[in-house]
Amino acid sequence: MATWDFKLPDIGEGVVEGEIVKWLVKAGDEIKEDQPMVEVMTDKATVTIPSPKQGRVLQTYGKEGEIAKVHHPLVQLELDGGAPAASPNGHNGHATAPAPASAATPAAAPARQPPAGATVEAGYSKVLVTSVTRRMAREHGIDLGILAGTGPQGRVLKSDVEAALKGGSAPAQARQIAPSAPLQTVKGDQRVPIRGLRKKIAEKMVKAKFTAPHYTFVEEIDATGLVELRARLNASLEGTGTRLSFIPFFCKALVSAFRQFPQVNANMDEATQELVVKGDVNIGIAASTDDGLTVPVVKHADRLTMKALADEIARLGTAARERRLKMDELTGGGFTITSLGQTGGLFATPIINHPEVAIMGVHRMRKRPVVVGDDDQIVVRQMMYLSFSFDHRVIDGAVGADFAYAVIKNLESPANLMLEMA
Q1: Cβ(296)–Cβ(44) below 8 Å
Q2: Active-site residue among 5, 80, 392, 402?
Q3: What is the pLDDT of residues 309-368, one digit of tens each?
Q4: Dist CA 103 CA 43 (whole Å)
Q5: Dist. CA 95–CA 50, nearest whole Å
Q6: Is 396 a catalytic residue?
Q7: How far is CA 177 from the centre of its chain?
Q8: Strand residues in 8-72 grouped as ranges (E)
């Protein structure tokens, strides 16, 4: 019998590590080829890692809650039938790509210290860093979690920490923090571990907030015509199994505005300090699940009819709630819509879905009297607010405002949206 270390394979765009959520095998188990071994959560989704070979588990590397790195040993197997053959990509231990599993599975155990060689949790987010650089940052009270590393794969270098200490103009931005002491609790208090999807949300929100200098632009729209058009279209779709929410209309309004302002449909590449203007219109639709907020991405929204958009948004929302989203359905976005429907409040200041540079918040619609026309008539209209947040590094205030008004113009003249139907 031969032993073989199976290594964590590449599991998505830019993913270099994942949190071990749940082990599905243990030492001594006999496993078959393609049998699920472990669930690993990245900042995009939870994936199930299958065994590429049949054999017996000798050892698992890492405990639930710890961090596993791509191309590092994950499971040691005793193989049936002699020495292991090379994997399809020519490297033992990188045999098969993982099968996507849930997008929002909570971790099964409290987080522990990362194993040797893993990324290090510093401050608020996990970063690639050497022990020397980590010690230097700790001695000077620098939060590594908000440094934009200039090394390979975003690794934070010693020079990045030095630049932060000098207050230089390097791409890394830092803030001084005092070491945190555990809070005191009293009888009746309850400690709830922040792990799994909730932990990933916390890390991403902090990174987004402290990396991109946000500003928010809010304006109201008269949605009366939009409400009437939606009602007519839903009447025509009766019996088809499709029902239009307002989100497909917002998507089409964005598609038109992106043609005027392509720089808003973009990602910010922190490593190279470049704005990546997206060639495709892929719109993230924030979805609330029992485990937290997930953002599935509607691909090629500009190519879909209103009906196809509605069907795809419904499909992704159901998959998010049922934890069935695939990695590809959570990546590639250039802009995000966040909406709480009728509980959406008057307006808000949404946080950008980093590395995107803009987000639109959709809020509560309600009837109220407004003044319209040259003769100042007071009529009852369906009114609502939209909140746009932008990354001020690349989207100036005037550009953000003009973009917002382009979207609003499309929504207040909804017949124009019919021209966006592929």
Answers
A1: no
A2: 392
A3: 999 999 999 998 888 888 889 899 999 999 976 677 888 899 999 999 999 999 999 999
A4: 10
A5: 10
A6: yes
A7: 26
A8: 17-23, 30-31, 36-41, 46-50, 55-60, 67-69
